[in-house]
Specification:
Helix 2 packs antiparallel against helix 3 (45-85), helix 2 (10-26) packs antiparallel against helix 8 and helix 4 runs antiparallel to helix 5. The protein has one domain. The chain is built from 8 helices and no strands. It has helices spanning 2-8, 10-26, 45-85, 90-118, 122-157, 162-175, 178-181, 195-219. With 231 residues, the chain is mostly helical.
């Protein structure tokens, strides 16, 4: 049971690491506003990279480790949801697949970002920056499937508190903005710095992950139904 609680808490560990990465990212400007360029200004990324290379490396490292903890959390969440859904647990499986697909896209963004850091060419770094932002945007779109499936299982079976299911539904809607952000080079929907293209999506992701992980820790040891609850 202790190991189950540790696994359930891996989501909280991921949130802490993601937040630490954002702190490093935001600390580059005394006003608290990131200076990383929009997609349409990718030619400025080479200069930005020269000024903040070390902090970007730290941010990428924290984010990559956070994704590992998130994947561990998905495994624990899938096992919990499957027990409540019962039967073939198709929706729980869909949720797991969506979460893994989103995590892979995020890791691709980290890879492109890390490649930009070590690239000796400014032009190549700019191109890799665009690929990194697009991968992160696509990852958010993939999480739409994850959150929608999680919301359905929780709200139908009571596997976790209804608040967790409701927040998952909200996160599914915000994640769907990723389908728009990969085509937005500027403005509030661009995947690099846009309010809706980046901050709102990952804000909803972080809030849900923290609440869901805490709820999953509390649920460890509670009796699980043998079959899916039907209305």
């Amino acid at each position: 049971m202790n190991w189950e609680r540790i696994g359930a808490a891996s989501g909280l560990a991921a949130v802490v690491l993601f937040l630490a990465g954002f702190v490093v990212f935001l600390s580059q400007d005394p006003t608290g506003a990131p200076r990383i360029p929009d997609i349409q200004d990718a030619d400025r990324y080479g200069l930005y990279l020269q000024e903040h290379k070390d902090s970007i490396r730290v941010e990428l490292l924290l984010n990559s480790v956070a994704v590992v903890f998130f994947l561990w959390f998905i495994g624990n969440l899938w096992a919990h949801l499957r027990a409540f859904e019962g039967g073939p647990a198709r929706v729980s499986a869909i949720a797991s697949a969506g979460g893994i697909a989103g995590a892979i896209a995020l890791l691709m963004g980290v890879v492109f970002g890390a490649s930009a850091v070590v690239s000796p060419s400014v032009i190549e770094a700019n191109e890799l920056y665009v690929l990194a932002a697009m991968s992160i945007g696509l990852g958010g779109a993939a999480f739409t499937v994850f959150f929608a499936a999680v919301a359905r299982v929780i709200l139908e079976t009571g596997a976790l508190p209804r608040l967790v299911g409701a927040l998952a539904a909200v996160a599914a809607v915000t994640s769907a903005l990723g389908f728009v952000s990969i085509f937005a080079a500027e403005g509030i929907f661009n995947p690099a710095t846009g309010a809706f293209g980046f901050w709102v999506r990952f804000g909803a992701f972080g809030v849900w992950l923290a609440v869901a992980s805490a709820a999953l820790v509390v649920s460890v040891g509670q009796k699980k139904p043998a079959t899916r609850r039907r209305r």
